[in-house]
């Protein structure tokens, strides 16, 4: 762990806290995936990992590498931008597919289509 | 002192993320329906990407960030394809 | 002339910037390649003929962004509390919201906001009746949700995009 010793103590503490927070949110999100009762409830849980979980971990990574290299490094921002743009699309498509399948089976727990299409 | 803290928290974060991946994997195996498995796969790759970032911090290599970006890209494409399949597969039947 | 070469100046600038971030350098070669990429990809997008977006009131857009970030943090904590400590049976369900917003870009931004906030997910949008269907994880009062989405997000988006 030689390169991490080059971090000044304040940066080490910031990186440690940010990392733990990020991992914690991702963990709770996946726990929700396991614990919640039905599909429409479960689909909410992974959003924790894609929003704050990823955000804290990217912040930790940016802090760590910027301090180590002595100049601002923003490569990680692209992951964040990309994930915020794509998560809504995947979840929306998935929920629509699930709704469609439930309607096909004649489930009464889901709202019926407002018109025939 | 602060570096021991960093060392411990990197390990703790990695254990938490491995547990998160295990939970997603359990949900993927248990189902019960195809859409549950796809949501679980989606969560699995996001967790894997976050885990890769922690490995990157631990090893001090920027290359892991690029790998994370590629995982995010491919995961997005695969989830979209699977969701499309869930709709189309039913139409064809 | 500028219209021909740069039909979407903002997008071209953004693409060039992303290229520079990727390469982590501002050497002349990288900058040149970034500019070429911005111009070429901007013109390619123009071939697809996207509908024109008209943005107004940038300060309001910024305020909306800050509000959305704070809401994301707050609902992250709310969903985490539900996952970790919830004992009572969870009442979740679908909510239909009649919208006034019809602009495509405004709707796209609204969908990003609603889905990025844990606890709510955009399900479908009926463009004929202009009714939006969302799913809410912790649905205590339905009218409150409709009201808060219309007030907090739709009102500013209407001012910015329409």
TrEMBL record, chain B:
Q: Pfam families per the record?
A: MrpF_PhaF
Gene Ontology cellular component?
A: plasma membrane
Q: Which UniProt keywords apply?
A: Antiport, Cell membrane, Ion transport, Membrane, Transmembrane, Transmembrane helix, Transport
Q: Where in the cell is it found?
A: Cell membrane
Its placement in the membrane is given as: Multi-pass membrane protein
Bilayer-crossing residues are 6-26, 38-57, 63-87
| UniProt main location, coarse | membrane
Entry-linked InterPro entries: MrpF/PhaF-like
What GO annotations for molecular function exist for this entry? sodium:proton antiporter activity
Family under the similarity heading = Belongs to the CPA3 antiporters (TC 2.A.63) subunit F family.
What the entry lists under NCBIfam families is as follows: PRK06161.1
Q: What is this protein called?
A: K+/H+ antiporter subunit F
UniProtKB/TrEMBL annotation, chain C:
- GO MF annotation, one: monoatomic cation transmembrane transporter activity
Family the UniProt entry places it in: Belongs to the CPA3 antiporters (TC 2.A.63) subunit E family.
Keywords, A to Z, come to: Cell membrane, Membrane, Transmembrane, Transmembrane helix
Q: Name one Pfam family in it.
A: MNHE
Membrane topology per record: Multi-pass membrane protein
Q: Where in the cell is it found?
A: Cell membrane
Family matches, as InterPro entries:
Cation_antiport_E
Primary localization class, coarse: membrane
Offer a single GO CC term for the protein. plasma membrane
Q: What is the top-level taxon of the source organism? A: Bacteria
Task: Tell me the organism.
Answer: Rhodanobacter sp. FW102-FHT14D07
What is this protein's record name? Answer: Na+/H+ antiporter subunit E
